[in-house]
Amino acid sequence: MNEQRPVPAGSSRLTIDLDALRANYRSLAVRVAPARCGAVVKANAYGLGVAQAAPALYREGCRSFFVAQFCEATALARAIGAGAEIFILNGVDPGNEAFCAEQNFLPVLNSLSQVERWRALARTLGRALPAALQIDTGMSRLGLPQSAAMALAGDASFAREVELRLLLTHLACADEPERPENSAQLAAFNAVGACFPSVPKSVANSGGVMLSSDYHGDLARPGVALYGVDPGPADAGLRPVIGLGARVIQIRTIAAGTGVGYGLKHVATAAQRVATISLGYADGWPRSLSGVGAAWHRGVRLPILGRVSMDSLTVDISALPEAALAEGDFVEFLGPSQSLSDVARDAGTIAYEILTSLGTRHTRIFVENGVAQTFAAGEPL
Ligand SMILES: *Cc1c(COP(=O)(O)O)cnc(C)c1O
Q: Pick from 2, 77, 170, 330: CA 20 to 30 A from residue 142's CA?
């Protein structure tokens, strides 16, 4: 591995394996073929860094990208250029219609008022404007009611003003394959879809990709699975994409009766060797892991003692030989010994939240084809 240029040493290291990301995309694309496979890269590619992740997906053949907001579409377009379609899942904010159209972004029109504002701009510009249309089939989050969408299908001026590139819906329970609501949503969507025979259809997020091919439509929209997280109960054979290590700042031995951390929530019952690590909730390491989670070193579990602080946490290293760990060494938080799903379970949350909370203080090392590109903490990617 050759480092491209020296960067300041960091206190924590986030490694992003772009080869694994590309392999996951490939495996999802094979699963949904002959449907096309897009990629959801909202929230900075789930915290990984969209400027690196999206071009890697593009190189793997992805040509349809989904973000949540206009500002994300702008960053994405800078990263991948004009060769792919960019859908904005939350639609177009009032006043942003012209910016959106100018950049050729594709807003997902979710309500009749969004539809109306997009049509108004189309009339002003005197040309049809491309967009996607979302149907609410039971999640009650975003999208037109089925009846409203069907009415649009019969509206000739709508067809002149809006060039529909995609008809989509979103599944509320795709991560629970046995839920009957999945097939109910699909049936409702297909009934609306029949009114738009020439428009490509999209149903599946990562969980939907793992359901039967009935859910794959013409274009799949996986997010979390790309980043190595199984969306449902089954092992989907995805490769982990990120690793996280953080440095030991200080090591000490405490006597029985000594407290550790805010609130002194841990009190040693016997002499104990402890290490304070440079990782805290400001780095996205949830405070709910206080007294619950662990770091790892060479396969040995190092339980978190007491509360997680903003910038540090303390672990028990009594199980390690004394020479095994020194100040400045890195211990593992995500890697072979501990997966994102392990951490999410311990923290009482989901892997999505851990990923998107990781923050900007980590040194980021993107690895692709054996080449590592390193960005210092806080440096724009
Ligand atoms: C976030 C999102 C996705 C991707 O979901 P994953 O569960 O991460 O695969 C797909 N579609 C919509 C509408 C979304 O909001």
A: 77
Q: Which residue has the tokens 């904010």?
A: 93
pLDDT band at 1 (very low <50, low <70, confident <90, very high): very low
Tell me the CA–centroid distance for residue 124 and ligand 1, in Å.
33
In a domain, 8, yes or no: no
- pTM of model > 0.85: yes
Structural domain of 128? 18-227
Q: Is 108 in the pocket of ligand 1 (CB under 6 A)?
A: no
Check whether residue 23 and residue 93 sit in a common domain: yes
Instruction: Output the CA 306–ligand 1 centroid distance in Å.
Output: 35
Query: Does the residue 345 lie in any domain?
Result: no
Among 25, 215, 262, 352, the active-site one is 262
Confidence of residue 380 (pLDDT cuts 50, 70, 90): low
Q: How far is the centre of ligand 1, averaged over its atoms, from the C-alpha of 221 (Å)?
A: 6
* Per-residue pLDDT reduced to its tens digit, 142-152: 999 999 999 99
Name the average pLDDT for the chain: 96
pLDDT at 6 over 90: no
Options 42, 58, 227, 352, the catalytic residue = 42
Exposed, middle or buried, 288 (CB in 10 Å: 0-12/13-18/19+)? middle
Verify that 50 and 175 share a domain, yes or no. Answer: yes
Ligand 1: does its nearest atom lie under 6 Å from the Cβ of 206? yes
| CA quadruple 350, 353, 356, 362: dihedral, nearest 10 | -90
**Peptide bond preceding 34: is omega within 30 degrees of 0, i.e. cis?**
yes
352 counts as catalytic: no
Which percentage of the chain shows pLDDT scores above 70?
A: 98
Q: Give yes or no: residues 167 and 249 share one domain.
A: no
